[in-house]
Amino acid sequence: MDMLVEKRHATLRGLVEDKIRDAIAGGMFKPGQRLIERELCETLGVGRTSVREALRQLEAEGLIENTPHKGPSVTQVSPENAAHLYAVRGMLEAFAGASCARQVTPEFADALDAAIDAFVAACDAGSRADMVQTKTAFYALLMDRCGNAYVTKFLTSLHNQISTLRFTSMSNSERLPHSILEIREIAAAIRAGDADRAEAACHIHIENASRAALAQMSE
């Protein structure tokens, strides 16, 4: 059995996955939009094999759905499924926030504040792609610090599946100031080492995000 790992190929496939994933999260590819292999190959400058493998991985993550006789397209999340996704996300992020508060260090608290500052700067610049990226970095800190690999795994999957909803909600100028205040409260609770407060703050943040996203889906 040949167990040799093709490092260069795996790296290329990973890069293709990341590019397509970011394009979906950033709104370049819309929910329901067909993803045509030939066009992706031309846009990304790679071969069909890399694109097909990347699409299979993104389908496993729930970002893409493959319809017989039509091919792959960006997954359209129904309002009902979106509500379910946000409900589970709220529970997991509340757990992560409480766990972070129980083991907080000054360095970690400073990292959270820096991530929030980066998000605020992206909001001020009006770059929705940077907003998604910097907000994701904030959540990544919570996931990494909570110390539970399963929470990280499931939250990453949930974030991927609602990435288009997050991008849409960040275009709502009325929601953004509240979102900033909410994540500042999460960071403040964690810095204070108050697990109950951090858990409640995470729940409130996700409940409000869910409400905003569902409201826009109904428009």
Helices and strands, in N-to-C order? Answer: HHHEEHHHHHHH
- What is the CA-CA span between the terminal residues? 56 Å
Give the tally of β-strands: 2
Number of helices: 10
Uncertain segments of ≥5 residues (pLDDT<50)? Answer: 1-5
> What is the global morphology?
globular
Radius of gyration: 18 Å
Strand order of the largest sheet: 1-2
CATH superfamily (homologous) name of the largest domain: GntR ligand-binding domain-like
Structural category is: mainly alpha
Question: Any overview of this molecule?
Answer:
The protein has 219 residues and is mostly helical. The chain has two domains: 7-74, Arc Repressor Mutant, subunit A; 79-217, Four Helix Bundle (Hemerythrin (Met), subunit A) (Up-down Bundle). The protein contains ten helices and two strands, in the order H-H-H-E-E-H-H-H-H-H-H-H. The chain has helices at residues 7-25, 37-44, 48-60, 79-102, 106-125, 128-146, 149-161, 163-169, 175-191, 195-217, and strands spanning 64-67, 71-74. A two-stranded antiparallel sheet has the order 1-2. The relative contact order is 0.14. The model is unreliable at 1-5 (pLDDT under 50).
Output the keywords.
Arc Repressor Mutant, subunit A, single chain, 2 domains, Four Helix Bundle (Hemerythrin (Met), subunit A), 10 helices, mainly alpha, 219 residues
Summarize this entry quickly.
The chain is mainly alpha-helical and 219 residues long. The protein contains ten helices and two strands; from the N terminus they run αααββααααααα.
